[in-house]
Amino acid sequence: MWRARNSTRAGWPPRRALASARVAATARAAATDGYQASGLPPESVRFDYEGELALVIGKPGRRIPREAALSHVAGWTPFLDGSIRDWQRHTAQFTPGKNFDSSGAIGPELVPAEAFGDYKAHDLTTRVNGEVLQHTPISLMLFDAETLIHYISTFTQLREGDVIATGTCGGVGEKRDPQRWLKPGDVVEVEVSGVPILSNPVAAEG
Whose CA is closest to 75, among 158, 14, 162, 135? Predict the structure, then answer.
């Protein structure tokens, strides 16, 4: 799975370049029912949320041109990028902080591309314990899905079932004053309009 370092104009400055990081499958807590707990590891208390829209590749390709990119998308689904911020800063590529077992989540359903329609016409909302902490029109993302698919497929073959998480917007816990970290007992919801809500409780990693 690929997680794009993207942002919207809703609270974050523009990025000068697109960055991406590979995310291990074990970092995803829920791929079916959307209710498995996201694990807070004992090594850190800096567990943060990033609500995102993810796409799933349905047709393989390499060096996919922008104008053909969306024809490679099978469907769309919410994604929770649970990020261990202090571990994320260990390297320039963020890999450790994005790959703790069961830190993230995806689902609960994959909406086919035809049914989802224009992805830029949807909104993204993240709630923690019912409070809206992130909200943005998806149309404001700096690097659109076509750019992400073209860019990633330039250096690696995209295959059926590959997931690209398209990035988040402002409102993450690290950027708040005071900072807001997830703790056991919290419930994180990621909602993409027109898609069933992804809901995950937070629990200490056993």
Answer: 162
